[in-house]
Amino acid sequence: MKILILGDVMGLSGRKVLKQNLTSIIKNNEIDFSIINGENAANDGKGITKEIAEEFFSLGIDVITSGNHIWDKLETAKYIDQEHRLLRPANLAQGSPGKGFGIYLSKNRRYKIGVINLMGNVFMKKTEDVFETAKNICKKIILKKNVDFSVVDFHGEITSEKMAIGHFFDGASTCVVGTHTHVPTADTRILDKGTAYQTDIGMCGDYNSVIGMNKENSLKKFLKDKTAIKHFPSEGTGTLSGIIVEANDQTGLANKVSRLIKGGVLET
Description:
The chain is an alpha/beta fold.
């Protein structure tokens, strides 16, 4: 079983590099299931639209996760109630539209994959306690009982909170990845009990930027230059950033995890 997980799609450059490369990546790596964080995929880098989400599905993405920008486009609240493959953080306020986790079939319809979307509590929008939410979800998404494999996307600001949630799910999930900070970390590994982990899998977008935003304008912002305008995405050549997890059919845990860096300034 091979699972592809890609980081936050950042604006037009992220969508372009995804469109150019995803089909071949899925084919060449024999990917059975693919997940992408789409919360920055709109042209202005904030939110996702129905049109963009459906383009991702048409390219081969199986589930789209999100984070603090999920409601930045008004249409999303209605669309997410209709499209179960688009997730929002499970620990948003009770009564929020959509769902924070789900169970899906692999591309060959042989396996059940649980996908869990969580958002950190530290330096993020107000949410319910993420660890309490995680404990409750663990009673519903049980590895090798009601799912064959499971993936957690933890959308958070600080590394310690991401690492803690990784250890919390160790042995109970195939993989835990961090998203949101748009910079891939170098700690890709398998934890003690068999869960693949990376603190942040980076973004899909133009890295010749400031976390995906135009670098010249971002510098003006930091320098308090009065000519600075509202942040907008950089639209140079994008990089796809994420991981591929090879999982054990018997245990549902990870045998191998590899970083994926394709295109743009980060590719070596």
